[in-house]
Structures are given as C-alpha cells and as structure tokens.
C-alpha cells in the first residue's frame, strides 16, 4: 500500500540584536554561564519586561520579504510550563495575535526519481511568524548526579516561523529549510549559525494512506540543528510510523528527539496542546502596535531578494541559472561579484563568474573562510582579470598570481602588477619574437611535426608544450596556437 508523508516545520531563528527581547542583557555567544542574565531574565520580583524595538523591526523585515500580512496589533502572551531553565515558570510568546500572518516561500527541490523531473518548484505557505523569548539551558554533561543551569540564553529574541503541512518528503523539508536559512541570513536578521543554536527546527511528521483526506497523527521532532539531521530524522520517523501502523499499532501524538549517533528518534514526552500551556495575555506588556509609517520605514532597508537578483544576473550578465545560483549564495558574495564586474566591464562578467565560482570559492572552502574574510579583494581580483584580458598575462599565470596574493594576504590593490614585474610574468606577445622561437622548436622536433602532419593531433599539443617550455611559460598561448597552425600548414604543402 502506498503512503503519503505530511510535514510541517517550525523554525526558531535567533534575531540579530545586541540585547535580549525584553531586557538590556547582552546576546553575545559563549559568555561564562549566567554572566548575561539580568533581573528581568531571572524573573526577580519587580523586574518588568520592555519590548526590544530592533527585534520587532527584524520581524517586520521578514514579513515584507515573504509578502505576509504584518499585524497592526499583536499581543504577547504567557505560555505556562515549568522547566528549571525557565525561571519565570512561563515563556513570553505570541499566540492568538502574532506579528506576522501568512506569507509564501518558493523552494526548488532536486530529486533523482525517474518519474519526476530532476528539479521542480513548490510554494510553501506559512501560517505565522511570531516573536518570543528563548529559554535557558540545562547542562548535564559536566555534573555528576546534578544538572547545571545556564540562563545566558534566557530572553534571547526568537522569531518562530511556522509552515502549513505542505511538504511531502524529507527532500522538500530540507529544500525549504535551506531556502529559509538563506533568506534570514540574506536579510541580516539572523546569523544562521546552527552550531550555536541560532537556527533550529522542529519537524511535525505524519503519514496517511495515499488518497486519504484526513491527516494522520503527527509527532514533533524537536531541536534539529543541521540539514542532515533534519533529513535523517524525518526519514527515520516516516519509516517508524509506517511500520507501526502496518503492524497494527497506532501513532501517538508526542514529542520526540533525534539521536544522531543511533540514527533514530526517541520519545521525549507526550505532545502538549495549546490549552495545556494556559496561554494568557502578558499583563506587563502592552499590545504591539505597528503602523504604516513604521512598516514603510523598515521597507527602505529591504534588500534585493535572492530570486530577483538571480533573475537579474541571468539577464544582465548573460549567466546560466547555476552560475547565478552560485553567485547569490550570500548577499556579500553577490556584492563582491558586482564590485569586480564594475571594474572589468560587463563584457567580462562571465569571466568574473568563472573566477569566483572556481578559484575564489575553492580557496574560501579550503581555508574555511567567508567571503567577508577573503584574502583577495574585489579590486585585486579585478586587476588580475584585466591583465588577462589585455594580454599581459595568461589565465594560468593569473591563477598563480591569485595564489600568491592569497598566501601573502596582500593589502595593496595593485598587487597583481607588482607580482607581474617582480616575477617577470609578463607574457611574450611580440609576433616576431614568437616566430623566431617557434622556428627553433619546429626544427628541433621533426618527429612531432611529422606525427601532426600524419593526422596525430596530440603532437600539436606537444609542440605547444615545447614552446611554453622554451619561453618559461611566458608566451601568449593564443598567439602561439595561431602561429604554430600557420607554420605547420606551410610544412604540409
């Protein structure tokens, strides 16, 4: 019997603010335990919360980017539960009146199934995105028979983004997660650091027999902090639920955790419903009022979005889709590209793309650096490309110069010219000089000449190699090829 998978995701994105959502305590990561927990975070008597304006503006910016409705009035509520890492005994969140409603995210999914295209697009509808505070952290590893409590994360601003149950495979869920991750980083509202807990998922998973209209009972897999774990956890949970139903059992609504070492989900607790949390409006926080003027002010900070930029790159710079995709993996990478193109000219835009997708990206990946940490500036790369275009150096020498600048971490924008002069990298383009050397190469390699004339094309490359050796790699390759063909054609007559 065929089964259909139904998936919805809840994503917690930590907003990039310097202070917490309801207090002035720092949000800096890796501080000593409990050094960034103030009276408000500790719920000391008389301490009152105040909403962080920047956190609200981050939420508005996200709502604008996904074409959602930004609520003119939203309310903060108390979500009651008792955990040791939540000193108040409740979490300040939003329930009935969230700040963002609706919205759409378009994903591109790659599949290997023969029955479907390799890539297809799908729209994922969002139910809501609401502001809330994070809880603290319980520490078990370093304490024997006890649990340590670190309240540095208590009060960290989160935007919880909730989808409709629109995804039908782990591949779609991962595609959505990656798209959302790219978007919040692109908007600069979240740093996206999953290792530090800045971006994490809860996956709601259920299965139903193909053709059924009613949803099956769902389970929620909590706190997934990598795309790989998200995919593995969903795949395992789908198989577990199907096996359970086929063996006569029933799926219980519960919260589960994913054990990445065992590659399986494990029951954590029964899944609570909204009424279990006894939501009520927080009496210490007034309703959040967002007027049109505030929205318009935030709108001015909305950058060109990734999809729009990809379309523009393909048209303006005559790039292929995969090239535009690679260049828009981050806003900083795209800005670097356009900086280089502005200096070398739009006619060389394709060449810039090849350099960035190839040489620059490989160096960044090798040294685990972001584009913001690159050791070759846009100005330095532009000069390398210009020297290739004007025939001063070959593409091969250009790559060597790039490597030298990278290793030197040179600060001068004219580093390419300095290296060309000091290393004598300037290629020989004078035709009379090249012809004289070519005559010698042809005269001293009669075997290669005869092989080429007899139809063995590999001999041509051997002669080119001898020419480059004779000039210590400084001969202009394009001119060498043209001159050599002309000279060999005369030998064949």
TrEMBL record:
SMART domains: GatB_Yqey (SM00845)
Reaction(s) this enzyme catalyzes, per UniProt: L-glutamyl-tRNA(Gln) + L-glutamine + ATP + H2O = L-glutaminyl-tRNA(Gln) + L-glutamate + ADP + phosphate + H(+); L-aspartyl-tRNA(Asn) + L-glutamine + ATP + H2O = L-asparaginyl-tRNA(Asn) + L-glutamate + ADP + phosphate + 2 H(+)
Keywords: ATP-binding, Ligase, Nucleotide-binding, Protein biosynthesis
Annotated EC: 6.3.5.-
Entries under PROSITE patterns matching the protein: GATB (PS01234)
Source organism, top-level taxon: Bacteria
Domain Asn/Gln amidotransferase: 335-488
Family according to the record: Belongs to the GatB/GatE family. GatB subfamily.
Subunit structure: Heterotrimer of A, B and C subunits.
Name this polypeptide is given: Aspartyl/glutamyl-tRNA(Asn/Gln) amidotransferase subunit B
Gene this chain is encoded by: gatB
